[in-house]
Each structure stands twice: as structure tokens, then as C-alpha cells.
């Protein structure tokens, strides 16, 4: 779950919210499309929860997620800070295969990609099998990962495992190349970390937090 820094909300959403009887369900299509583009831009075209890529032509592949659900927080249904961009989460498939907003439904989360103190990025760890878990073995966080959002579904674990392996192999190769040259190796780690933390053409790499976690851990040990 990559930390999200919210941009200025679209003017069209602000104007819609000012209308009498405005609700999320009666947002004009053009306003919803602009909203989606804003959400994608600030999130670097990855899902707010699982970090999979959301394609450029977002509408068929994206949902506007209400962090605090509409069912219980009607007053926040048009609050821009409550709106996130989520993948479709295997909507229409069996429940055990659903993820993210589709799996979450009206459940309440405490882990929030907008949080900065602490950053949501500091709450998670990843192992070589792509499994995601609480870095402090917090049962509440693990429940949200596994039950509420189903972020350890096998296909997501496989995707994260691939990122873990790619980064691990690059580090191993560089470690051999810079043997006995610790400053060069540390410089490489920092450069790799910068790549995974940064957007390229407005996009983060899918599952980027796996690499960020692994590289940060390596830097601390060097």
C-alpha cells in the first residue's frame, strides 16, 4: 500500500457538491471521469490497496473507492479526501478471489494510504514468497490485509514475489561487482530505492512497495 498525497480536487467535483441533492450516485459522467483521472494521477496509476497497475483507459478497470463507506458515512460520499482509486478487485468472481474495495465492501479500515504519521508504508513487510504482513505482528493490521482486503490472494503474492526476486537478483549481482567497495554498493542501493520511490511518466511501478521495503532493509544492514 503506497502512501498517497492528495492533489487539489477537480473543480467539477466541487461544483457538483455545491448542488442541491448532490450525491455520489448522481455525479455526471464527465465529472466522474475527471475524478478518476485525478485519483490515478496522484496514485501513480496503481491501485490504492494492492498496487497493481490501473491502465490509462481507466474506466473499465477502476473503481472510485470510498475509504469510509457510503453506507455508514453518507456525509463523506463526496469528500475528496475520502475518495481513492481502486482496481476492480476481481469483481464478479467468487468471494475468495475478490480483493481491495470489492472484498472490503462496507468494512472499516484503520490502515490508511493517506496517513503520514506513521506512513502507511511503514506498517508492512514482505517475504520472498510475496506474502504481505504487519511489520509489528499487529493482529488488527494482519486481519485487514488478509480478511478485509484479501491482499494475500495467490495471484497478488505471485506478482509481489516476482518483484522481490528481480530486486534481489539485481542486488546480488551488484554486490559481486562492487565486492570490497561498500560506498559504491550503498550508492547503488540508494539509486535503486530512488527509482522505485519515483514516478516515471507519472506512473509508479506496480507493487513498488515490495522493492522499497527490501531496499530499505538492505540499506539499514549496510
Task: For the structure shown, list the relevant keywords.
7% strand; 7 helices; mainly alpha; 2 domains; two-stranded antiparallel ribbon; globular; HNH78-like; 4 strands; 222 residues
Describe this structure in words.
This protein is mostly helical and 222 residues long. The chain has two domains: 11-153, no CATH class; 155-220. The protein has helices at residues 11-17, 29-43, 100-104, 139-148, 154-177, 182-197, 208-220, and strands at residues 62-66, 83-87, 124-126, 132-134. It has a two-stranded antiparallel ribbon with strand order 1-2. A hairpin with a 5-residue loop joins strand 3 (124-126) and strand 4 (132-134). The protein is globular. The two termini are 25 Å apart. This is TIGR02646 family protein. It comes from Chryseobacterium lactis.
Order of helices and strands: HHEEHEEHHHH
Q: What fraction, in percent, of the residue positions are helical?
A: 40-55%
Tally of domains = 2
Radius of gyration: 19 Å
Q: What coarse outline follows from CA principal-axis ratios?
A: globular
Number of helices: 7
Question: What's the main sheet like?
Answer: 2 strands, antiparallel
Helix and strand composition category = mainly alpha
Low-pLDDT runs: none
Strand order of the largest sheet: 1-2
Number of strand elements: 4
Strand portion, in percent? 5-15%
Overall average pLDDT: 94
Ends distance: 25 Å
Protein name: TIGR02646 family protein
Amino acid at each position: 500500500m503506497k502512501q498517497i498525497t492528495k492533489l487539489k480536487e477537480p473543480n467539477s467535483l466541487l461544483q457538483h457538491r455545491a448542488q442541491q441533492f448532490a450525491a455520489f450516485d448522481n455525479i455526471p459522467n464527465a465529472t466522474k471521469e475527471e475524478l478518476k483521472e485525478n485519483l490515478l494521477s496522484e496514485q501513480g496509476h496503481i491501485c490504492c490497496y494492492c498496487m497493481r497497475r490501473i491502465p490509462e483507459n481507466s474506466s473499465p478497470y477502476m473503481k472510485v473507492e470510498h475509504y469510509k463507506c457510503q453506507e455508514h458515512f453518507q456525509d463523506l460520499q463526496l469528500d475528496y479526501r475520502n475518495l481513492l482509486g481502486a482496481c476492480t478487485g476481481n469483481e464478479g468472481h467468487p468471494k475468495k478471489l475478490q480483493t481491495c474495495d470489492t472484498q472490503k465492501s462496507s468494512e472499516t479500515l484503520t490502515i490508511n494510504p493517506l496517513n503520514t504519521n506513521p506512513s502507511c508504508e511503514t506498517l508492512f513487510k514482505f517475504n520472498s514468497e510475496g506474502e504481505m504482513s504487519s511489520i509489528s505482528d499487529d493482529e488488527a493490521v494482519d486481519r485487514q490485509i488478509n480478511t478485509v482486503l484479501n491482499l494475500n490472494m495467490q495471484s497478488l503474492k505471485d506478482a509481489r514475489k516476482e518483484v522481490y526476486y528481480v530486486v534481489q537478483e539485481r542486488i546480488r549481482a551488484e554486490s559481486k561487482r562492487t565486492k570490497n567497495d561498500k560506498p559504491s554498493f550503498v550508492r547503488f542501493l540508494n539509486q535503486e530505492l530512488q527509482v522505485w520511490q519515483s514516478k516515471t511518466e507519472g506512473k509508479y511501478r506496480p507493487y513498488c512497495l515490495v522493492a522499497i521495503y527490501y531496499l530499505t532493509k538492505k540499506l539499514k544492514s549496510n
